Amino acid sequence: MTTADVVVVGAGVVGASIAFHLASRGVDVVVCDQGHGGRQGATPWSAGQVRLTHGDPADMRLAALSLPVFERWAEVVGGDCGFRATGFALLVGEDFLAVAATAVKELDVLGIEARLLDPGEYARRRPGLRYDGVAAVLTEPRSGYADPVATTAALLDRAAGFGARVRTGTRVDSLVVSGDTVRGVRTATEVVSAAEVVLATNVRGAELLTGTGVAVPLSTTRVGWAAVAGPELPAVDVTIDDTIGTYFRPWGEDGVLYRVPMDGRGGPPDTASGPVRPDLLEPARSLVARRVPALAGRVATASGSALESYTPDGKPVLGRAGPGGVYLALGPSGGGFKSAPAIGRAVAAELAGAGPAEELDPYRFARFSGEGRRPVARRYRHM
Ligand SMILES: Cc1cc2nc3c(=O)[nH]c(=O)nc-3n(C[C@H](O)[C@H](O)[C@H](O)COP(=O)(O)OP(=O)(O)OC[C@H]3O[C@@H](n4cnc5c(N)ncnc54)[C@H](O)[C@@H]3O)c2cc1C
């Protein structure tokens, strides 16, 4: 039998970040992931965008706490996460001008520079776009995107450097329960005994809780992107177009990656990650070509999609719940990459006994019942 202080189940970017922060604090960690370091889970397929503006100020705060980590990765974590500060732009229509103006003030309070530009002014920076229907552009100069595979590998490497035991190809089959307390996990080959078990299992989140009385409300959705490359494409920022409901960002040296709206079908957790279904590519490109006309008629050179788990309010569930010894880091809801550094640091602090991390308060499981319930904050048209 193996023993540890904490077992982290799931080595996507969220589990990897938690493991890194735990190990760097001297906590004895075992990380188990059923994948073999390949393209399993959502993380390797993520678009990797790091932006701060959200509909909910709580999400803005988590992302703002994470941005400096992406910016100073080599110093804070070590290695390279591939962060590129391209700048972020949110295109909003007339109805959302006041909301965007408020967001600029909220970002200022968080110490983040942001501006609200009229489209003509922004067009001088990004002349290759069309701006019909855009009333203003919120810009975040420090934001950008990173490489999710490199980010996660760096976190796991550094965790191992601090003594974490990272076990790939190791599926956790069940929790070890004694009375009303979880004491570890069971794999096909062994029991790993630990005082705390962190579930960072995304679309497989609820499975291991079967029989514990904890029902986390998670639904599964497929999300995806496609990319076009070519020297004649315009330079773009990481951009969310809230007027028509798409996003795009630079792809490599001369390409553009853009959102592919999926057809809403999730599928069982084993449904393969991989390229987008071909019939979804043309509608996605037509939509984004309304904003980036040079994309019209172009053939996607790459695409990716994966399952992601969502909570009813589109926010993760972070904290202890159910039997003693269980800590949930579930339901990343389509945005877990940009906030993983702050989530990892706060979760590790709580597990190491530092007391409740205030920035995690809006994400507790209790919000799904009784007094813990909080309103859904969705302030833009599409995001
Ligand atoms: C196409 C796409 C684009 C995205 N774009 C962005 C973006 O631009 N910006 C952003 O912030 N977010 C984005 N996201 C969301 C973000 O990537 C995810 O929220 C994040 O990667 C989730 O990380 P995770 O560690 O929670 O889950 P995952 O990466 O899914 O990892 C969960 C891991 O748990 C393992 N696992 C599950 N069950 C078990 C078990 N029983 N035993 C052992 N291992 C187990 C799996 O093998 C898997 O590796 C995107 C997601 C997708 C799919």
Describe the structure in your own words.
- This protein is an alpha/beta fold.
- The chain has two domains: 2-45 and 149-218 and 312-372, FAD/NAD(P)-binding domain (3-Layer(bba) Sandwich); 87-143 and 219-310, D-Amino Acid Oxidase, subunit A, domain 2 (D-Amino Acid Oxidase, Chain A, domain 2, 2-Layer Sandwich), CATH 3.30.9.
- The protein is built from eight helices and 18 strands.
- It has helices spanning 13-24, 57-71, 73-76, 97-109, 119-125, 148-161, 281-289, 336-351; strands spanning 2-9, 29-33, 49-50, 88-92, 115-117, 136-140, 144-145, 165-168, 172-178, 181-187, 191-199, 219-229, 238-241, 246-251, 255-260, 302-310, 317-320, 326-330.
- The chain is globular.
- The relative contact order is 0.20.
- The mean pLDDT is 94.
- The structure holds flavin-adenine dinucleotide.
- Flavin-adenine dinucleotide is lined by residues 9-15, 32-35, 40-43, 45-49, 171-172, 200-202, 204, 208, 223-225, 304-306, 308, 332, 334-338.
- Residues 9-15, 32-35, 40-43, 45-49, 171-172, 200-202, 204, 208, 223-225, 304-306, 308, 332, 334-338 line the site of flavin-adenine dinucleotide.
Bound molecules: flavin-adenine dinucleotide
Structural class: alpha/beta
Counting structural domains, the number is 2
Rounded Rg: 21 Å
Q: List low-confidence stretches.
A: none
Q: What fold name stands as the CATH topology of the largest domain?
A: FAD/NAD(P)-binding domain
Give the strand tally.
18
The CATH architecture of the largest domain can be given as 3-Layer(bba) Sandwich
Mean pLDDT: 94
How can the largest sheet be summarized?
Answer: 8 strands, mixed
**By CATH's scheme, which homologous superfamily of the largest domain applies?**
FAD/NAD(P)-binding domain
Q: How many alpha or pi helices?
A: 8
Beta-strand fraction estimate:
25-35%
Order of helices and strands: EHEEHHEHEHEEHEEEEEEEEHEEEH
Helix content: 10-25%
